[in-house]
Amino acid sequence: MNFGPKSVLSPRLSSRSTPVRRTSALQSTFKRTPTKGSISGRSLQSNQIICKSPNYAVEYFGTPLPVLVTEALTFSDSNSAVSVNISNEGWAWFVCGRRLLIWQAFGKRPVSTQCRELALPPSDLAHKAHLVAVYITQSSQMPCCLAVSPEGLVRYWSSIAHESSWIESNADLHGQECDFLQLILPLGCLLVTTTATLVLVTPQISAARHALVCRTIKTPHGWLGGIGRKMSSLIFGSIPSTQIMETKLVKVVARSNEGNIGYGEWNVLVLAGCSLQKWQLHNGETEKLVYEVDLGRPVREAFMEVQIEAQDLVFLDMQGSENKITLLVAITTAQLSSHLYYGLVSFATDSNVPPFTVPITWFYQIRSQDLSPLLNSSSNEKSLQFLMTDQAVLIYNNMHILAVSTISGGDEIELLEPGCGKILGAIMCGRLPVFFTFTNGFVTVISSDIPSFDINTSIPPDLTNISEYGMSDSQLEELSSQKDNAGLMRAAFLLYIRKNLVQSRAMISDLCLSDASLSSRVDAVLDSVIVQVSKDLIDDVPGKDPRWADQKTSTISITSSNSLQIINQLEEKQRVLEWYINFLKDLKLWEQLGGMTIRGKVMATPFILQEHVEKVVAAITLKKMHLDQKFSSLIDTCIEEVLVKNGMHPFGGLTNQDLFYRQVSLIHEVFHQLVKWSENLVYSKQSPQYVISQLITANTILLDMLRAVIDHRYQSSPLYKPSSQLNIVLEYLPWTSGSNTFREALVTQMKLTLEHGVRATGDLGHKAELLDQLVIFVDILLDGRKMHVESLRNTTQFNIVLQQYETDRINLIQPFLVEEEYDRAAMLAEKYLEFQILIEICDKTNNQHRLDQYTEKFKEQNFSQFLFNWYMRENKQSHLVGRCHEKGGEQLAQLLGEHPSLSWLNDIATGNYKRASTTLVSLAENETQLLRRKKSMISFAALALLAANDEPKKSELEELKSSMNLIVNQEELPDSILNAYGYDFDSLRVFTPAELIKLYICDENPTCTEFDMKKALDLLSYIHDDLEKCELRNEIWCKAITKDTWVDLDPNAPLGATQQLMFFKLVNLCILLDSNLDQVPSLEQLSVADELGDLKDNNTFQYLLRVGYEHVIQDVQ
């Protein structure tokens, strides 16, 4: 907080402040009396809210102001320079004249109410709080203090407890005025002057004495050249005289490279005028100027994009975040030189490469009318500064705060009134914006959707005393000072229970969450810490039981109560877990939760927290059953086995029950022990009646716990809904059916119950009870598996997991079908949509009415499609077709249309013969596997066509006749050919016309005659490709020639010889049957046929062939 003359936090109180007003402020302050030993006195007030807008609330922050501070405020002169600052560690200091008052406003340890007063160095100029640093070193419990006068005189106190023990040193600034002191441990403090000179001030210990070393960081020559006093007073005439850039420095932002001030490497950003320098300072190394850049040009360009041409500009304030800086800018235009425009602009500063221009990451123009409440004040109240939170930019002056939402893009702007009196300062304390007001002291601005005041309803008033819950203030101090994230989370939770919401948030901001920004959000530090604290809660020792005194750890002991009964302790653990969930939601941690790997699967972290609550519910149920003498002996046995397995033995008067019920996270192991005990039971030598009765007892214990868990899961499921903003695949497989070993244990118990209980008893009552228990087992397992499947919907894993679930589903329900327990099987199958079981039940019981009911009931789940597939798979097509004509079979009939092999039957049954014929013809054309089937299809197609109402077309009948002729040709193939090629006539496949031609003329046909050859020629009509037809015709005639030996014939009687040749027999048959020679090749075609080989060049062959052709032509003519 800079309270110098140019700051909005003016060192002088308004001259308008009257004594009456000061008295009012004093009275108001004194109403907030501090509370000894509290971490934040503010949190103990019944009402923390000062004012509230639709989206924001102003609350008290920290402890009430010490009396010394309120007196100094009340009785200070109107001309006195007053300023305040506060550190992230909770130490606040107040400067009035040379008086420096230091107190603890909040902290990780119990807050001390003592206020220390130190004397600042003498100065002719007004001291200010921004030239003071109060901090704690590792070697001291009490903070030290370093203060610098405006002239550069440095004074250092190694402990504020010793106000008279200090050392001094002069920074030798040669007349420059000091402006700001930035703490950069362990390097020391960085002193910055109004002319941007940087001086590193380092307290050291030399020869057992404290010393100060002041070293000026060399600035490149001429960096501030041209900046000077070039701003026109006319342009910024509306800005108070203290803001006319007489001082060139605007702001310094320092950021540790590792996010840890003890690392010793800092990036320092210095803004002076329009120039930005980035420095790197290392512990033990020479400082380095990373880059220097002019911000004026990109800012002007940003205003140009909103149609505003900037003539002159001035930077009013700068704030830094992790990788960027944000600036508040005022500009004038040539058209309206007296009118100011304002804007917020962010620049990325994470790169170390000297940029030509700095990239703008965000820009927002602020309209003058939005700033009117801040600009319409008197001249010395117009100075504007701002703080930046995750949700808003808070622009303020001496009287008002204006909240500009960064989430809505600046569309939501609200004016906040922090109470009567001036705003004397502001700073970001962790992630909280903290303001100091004349009347109310420290206040903070939070989002109003955080129900800070509703905590009174979520936590009963009698639970706000930490000491009643196993942790004193000293223990809380020790817990808060740890580096352990889990310890900080526990402390934050305890503060939340004490209704100290502001300090609880501050504690959360101290968590080391190095991977909080990772996009994967799986196994993040925050999730691990939250789950660990939850587990610590359910495994916590009873704080009021003296037998546990030696076993208490440094973790939270918050579940203790005045009652020493185990059942009450478990119920309180459940109640505390509910508070813990409220704590995570109220502090906006719930939305940040991602997923964690558990049992080999990535589950949403809220579901893991739900699992912890469910285990407490199971433990409560088990303890209640433990009180029943019927179950106590068996439960004692199982508990003892669990303790032995985990190496736990009673001590100090504690019992097995004390040890077991304390560590609730082990509750699932009692399930395994019950199953193990049941296995030993069924294989023992006990009588069947005893085994059955004990199985029922073991099942009762298991199922009562599981049912209690399931009931709680469904009742509380809305409370554990994960954030909808997650972009990762998260599974949900409840622990009651998720772990492989747990699921296997339940399946084993079911098998024991079925084989050694249901099937071994003749008692109908016992059998019915065992079957009912089996139903519940199956229900619990399938319920969990179904949740798992649903959690993976629309992911690549869904189909695989769904298939596994469907397999397990039928395997779990099938035993009821085998035992003919149809009602129990149907109940489970209906609930979990196991359609195969439902269909088999209807089939076995021949209950068509029930099947019709299922068809209608599960219409949206495509039950008809499943039924159709089942009929097909079971080769019950006749049942399927028959069902189509019964009531409720309309959906099946529609499905038949997608299966032509059956739809024609339905068409025949409904009298649609024409469509049946068309379908059969189509099926026959595509039939290639079985000749008999194709013949039947064609025959039925012809009959249906003839039976149709419309007279069939001649072309349709001719097409069917042609198809049948082709089949007849295949049926007339000689058996010798089929046997030669290994074909079975009873299962003969359909041959193509080309295949039939080659089979008729093949050499494997020893009885081949000219009639076989003529069939082959006739089959050419079924060949539609002209080239293929020509090749096959030549092949037929060449085969006819090669059937005989031409060269051995007697050339002296050529006519008689040729008439005995197969070739000319086929020619004569063609003339006889076709009355033409269209199918006979010419001599020229035969003379070039390669199929004849050397024969075509034989003179005798050529002679006989020509003689034969001459004779044939004469006969034809």
Q: Could you explain how this protein is built, in words?
A:
Belongs to the nucleoporin Nup133 family. Residues 12-41 have a biased composition (Polar residues). Residues 1-41 are annotated as: Disordered. With 1117 residues, this protein is an alpha+beta fold. Among the domains are: 76-216, YVTN repeat-like/Quinoprotein amine dehydrogenase (Methylamine Dehydrogenase, Chain H), CATH 2.130.10.10; 249-423, Methylamine Dehydrogenase, Chain H; 593-791, no CATH class; 993-1116, Alpha Horseshoe (Serine Threonine Protein Phosphatase 5, Tetratricopeptide repeat). It is 42% helix and 17% strand. It is built from 37 helices and 31 strands. A five-stranded antiparallel sheet has the order 1-2-29-28-27, with helices on one face. The chain has a four-stranded antiparallel sheet with strand order 3-4-5-6, covered by helices on one side. A four-stranded antiparallel sheet has the order 7-8-9-10, with no helix packed on it. A hairpin with a 3-residue loop joins strand 19 and strand 20. The longest helix is centred in the middle third of the chain and has 29 residues, at 688-716.
Short description:
This protein is α+β, with helices and mostly antiparallel strands. This is Nucleoporin Nup133/Nup155-like N-terminal domain-containing protein.
